[in-house]
Amino acid sequence: MTPLKISISPLEEKDVAEIMEIERKAFKSHWPETAFINEIYRNRLAHYFVARHEEVLVGYAGIWLVVDEAHITTVAVHPDYRRQRIGEQLLHHLLVVAISKGARWATLEVRESNQGAQDLYKKYGFSSVGVRKNYYTEENENAVIMWAGNLREESFKQKLASLKEELEQEGSKSA
Questions:
Q1: What is the reported pTM?
Q2: Is residue 170 part of a domain?
Q3: For residue 34, is it within any domain?
Q4: CB 6 within 8 Å of CB 52
Q5: Residue 120: strand, helix, or coil
Q6: Using one digit for the tens of pLDDT, what is the confidence trace for 73-115?
Q7: Which residues are catalytic?
Q8: How far are the Cα atoms of 116, 125, 134, 143 from residue 151, in angstroms, in the given order?
Q9: How many domains in the chain?
């Protein structure tokens, strides 16, 4: 699983139509376009990013920063670009941003059936702390609640740096 070389930049309104294509393909129940517009312009807690391979938008991710907590709201990759560690690169970016903005903890919900995502989050120091019953109401699927912290500890920062180095080394092998 070689990382695809991507660039990550803040989400802009011009990107919303492209992320909506991914949103519809990635999630059975998805956010409406207006939700992303609100996140860009009205939610001061929100920080969203897009991943591009060359000029193609291939994924996106977002967090809300509330006091010292980073809540990961979404990570999505276009189905044609999965298994190339784009989601991992986006997750890494979110955690770096969270730390830079003063977050001490990170949390998220993930579908109980999405073992691949859960494994990725565990790799980055998240652990399961509970379940939200029927969180994904349209599918009656539970969400696993995961937390990571303390993001400010030197050991977490070292782990993040090590995982970044691993991504870069694997990416340079494929170049």
A1: 0.92
A2: yes
A3: yes
A4: yes
A5: helix
A6: 999 999 999 999 999 999 999 999 999 999 999 999 999 999 9
A7: 109, 121
A8: 22, 9, 29, 23
A9: 1
